[in-house]
Amino acid sequence: xxxxxxxxxxxxxxxxxxxxxxxxxxxxxxxxxxxxxxxxxxxxxxxxxxxxxxxxxxxxxxxxxxxxxxxxxxxxxxxxxxxxxxxxxxxxxxxxxxxxxxxxxxxxxxxxxxxxxxxxxxxxxxxxxxxxxxxxxxxxxxxxxxxxxxxxxxxxxxxxxxxxxxxxxxxxxxxxxxxxxxxxxxxxxxxxxxxxxxxxxxxxxxxxxxxxxxxxxxxxxxxxxxxxxxxxxxxxxxxxxxxxxxxxxxxxxxxxxxxxxxxxxxxxxxxxxxxxxxxxxxxxxxxxxxxxxxxxxxxxxxxxxxxxxxxxxxxxxx
Length: 318
What we know:
Blueprint: E1 6-9, E2 11-19, H1 21-26, E3 35-41, E4 50-51, H2 61-67, E5 82-89, E6 95-97, H3 101-108, E7 116-123, E8 128-133, H4 138-146, H5 150-153, E9 154-158, E10 164-167, E11 173-175, E12 179-186, E13 192-195, H6 211-217, E14 230-234, E15 237-244, E16 248-255, E17 268-281, E18 284-289, E19 293-296, E20 304-316
Antiparallel strand pairs: 1-4, 1-19, 2-3, 3-5, 5-12, 6-13, 7-10, 7-12, 8-9, 8-11, 14-15, 15-16, 16-20, 17-18, 17-19, 17-20
GO molecular function: mannose-6-phosphate isomerase activity
Catalytic activity: D-mannose 6-phosphate = D-fructose 6-phosphate
Cofactor: Zn(2+)
């Protein structure tokens, strides 16, 4: 039986809006000074992580999903369902929107649309996100986009560390400059750009917009999701449920000493936001540090955590 955590090698993505905070905060060996994304837990074809330890060392998470489904409680589906990223926005991201599953299958021939959620790790004072819009109808939305009425259309929200946002498919959104977030999402890389501030890439070209498809998939009117963040202590860990919805359940865990023995009915995804410690299974003791990403497979019957650390954890609900 596979009785140890699966540690994953991050994949990095250079972006026009990226910076160096992934190195400064998490000590990642980033490829450039415009590194925007760390794909920490991914089976996606555009950036599947390699496994760093154990019997499957050197294999990708996608290969593990395809050939060792018992590690994932024999969950159905052609692809690993979730993708966990850390983003560093030195500059504003484009204003964008993502399709739902049905649109992704029908139009993009992809298995998943993209519902996501954001945990704000850190940000500059005065940092903002764009979350939703003020149009009351599809006709008004199309007219405001065509007339570039961005200040009137887009809803801006100031953010601070520890904030959390649930971003269902169809939500117009953008991460503003000076923010680092952990994003838990469906395993999808479909993005429709609505507006990109008329900026150009290194070749002097404006990036492509996708206005027709953006208007197709945007929810009108925008409705802010209602979240009930609940906190409790369990197994020697302070826990907070951030969201529980169709595709995933996401928690924030704080470990301050030593947990009790923890059992789980499903595989769990972990990203270490801060601190360090050890994870113990019947197989042995495994160290983790800030910036690590790992999965506790369904074949691990129980485990213990020890140290001082905080995590974002998630499970698939599909």
